[in-house]
Amino acid sequence: MADTDEIDKLLVNRLSNRDIVESRYKELFHDLNKPTEDDNQTQDLVDELKQELFKRDSELKKLDDINKVLRHANENSNNEIISLNIENNIMNEKYNKLEVEYNKLIKRWLSKVEKDVQDMNGML
Question: Where are the membrane-spanning stretches (predicted)?
C-alpha cells in the first residue's frame, strides 16, 4: 500500500502541475479562433489600408499614363521646334540671297540713272 500511496501522491502532484501549465497556456494563448475586438479593429484597419492602397495604385497608374502622354507631346513639340528652326534657317538664307540680289539691282539702277543724268548734262 505504501507504493500505492506514493503513486497516488505522484499522480496528484503531476496532475496539479499539468493543471497549472494548462492554465498558464490558456492565459498565453486564449482561444485564437474567436475574433476579439482587437482582431475586428485590426481587420477593419487592414481593409481600409487595402482600399487606400488600391486607390493609390489607381492614381499612380493614371499619373503614369498622363506622364506618358505628356512625354509624347513633349517629344512632338521638340520635333516641331527642330522643324521650325530648320525652316527658319532656310528662310534666312533665302532672305540673305534676295537682299544681296536687291542691293545689286539697286546699284545697277543707280548707276544707270547716274549715267542718264550725265548724258543729259553732257547734252546741255
Answer: none
Query: Cα dihedral angle (86, 89, 94, 95), rounded to 10 degrees?
Result: 140
Condensed to tens digits (0 to 9), the pLDDT of residues 24-64 reads: 877 776 655 665 677 788 888 999 999 999 999 999 999 99
pLDDT for residue 22: 86
C-alpha cell at 64: 503614369
Other C-beta atoms closer than 10 Å to the C-beta of 32 total 8
DSSP per-residue string spanning 67-119: HHHHHHHHHHHHHHHHHHHHHHHHHHHHHHHHHHHHHHHHHHHHHHHHHHHHH
The single residue listed with the C-alpha cell 553732257 is 122
What pTM does this model have? 0.50
Please report the pLDDT score of residue 30 as a whole number: 63
User: CA 16, CA 3: separation in Å to the nearest integer?
Assistant: 20
Map out the domains of the chain as residue ranges.
1-34, 35-123
